[in-house]
Amino acid sequence: MTALPFPLAQAPDEFSSERGRLLFAGQTDFLKGVVAMSGLPAGDRIEVCFAGRSNVGKSTLINALTGRKGLARASNTPGRTQEINFFTLGGDSHYLVDLPGYGYANAPVAIVEKWQRLLKSYLAGRQNLRRAFVLIDARHGVKSVDEEIMRLLDSAAVTFQCVLTKADKVKEKDRERILDQVRGALAKHPAAFPEIILTSSEKGDGIAILRSIIATLE
């Protein structure tokens, strides 16, 4: 049988799972919000970033990963946060980066353009960035605004991995259709990592997988 392109990531082995548990059991703190390249902290450790359109559940996922309910601020106002937020993970071993939500229709054009310039500069100039995680709502699949961020990651040669959020909200009969759509979209992007992570912050699904992936990046 031919293997599916972009299969779902499987549960980690015991060693990787323990590395992930230990990394996220350590201290996690908010470091700073950055609005210009000059404010970026030194790139002296492994870094991962999370991108996703507004209300995809990014803050909720980061809070579930770290076990800290109020660490990443969730907002009901799309596009409110226009900073790149840095968190220290595992004491001083990693940076976890929360990028501003994109795809917000009500933000002023000038604000959107400023954020896009900052994002492009960040992605192109961050040598210690090991992987970007692009969050996609499992109920809706990849939208045109998601394609924009994926093209940006392609051009910056930053490996990105698709994380489907809110998987518990999808009916079983709809899951394969959505997965097919996501796989088709990812196939167009050379920077896409060939595995999809299925998560539910509410149920805890996929959290151990994502933790272990981050912990084992070199």
TrEMBL record:
Key word DNA repair present: no
Ranges where the EngB-type G domain occurs: 44-218
Keywords: Cell cycle, Cell division, GTP-binding, Magnesium, Metal-binding, Nucleotide-binding, Septation
CDD domains attached to this UniProt entry: YihA_EngB
Top-level taxonomic group: Bacteria
Matching Gene3D superfamilies: P-loop containing nucleotide triphosphate hydrolases
Alphabetized PROSITE patterns for the sequence: G_ENGB
Cofactor requirement: Mg(2+)
InterPro entries to which the protein is assigned, alphabetical: G_ENGB_dom, GTP-bd, GTP-bd_ribosome_bio_YsxC, P-loop_NTPase
Keyword flag Magnesium: yes
Family to which this protein belongs: Belongs to the TRAFAC class TrmE-Era-EngA-EngB-Septin-like GTPase superfamily. EngB GTPase family.
Protein task: Necessary for normal cell division and for the maintenance of normal septation.
Protein name: Probable GTP-binding protein EngB
Species, as recorded: Roseovarius pelagicus
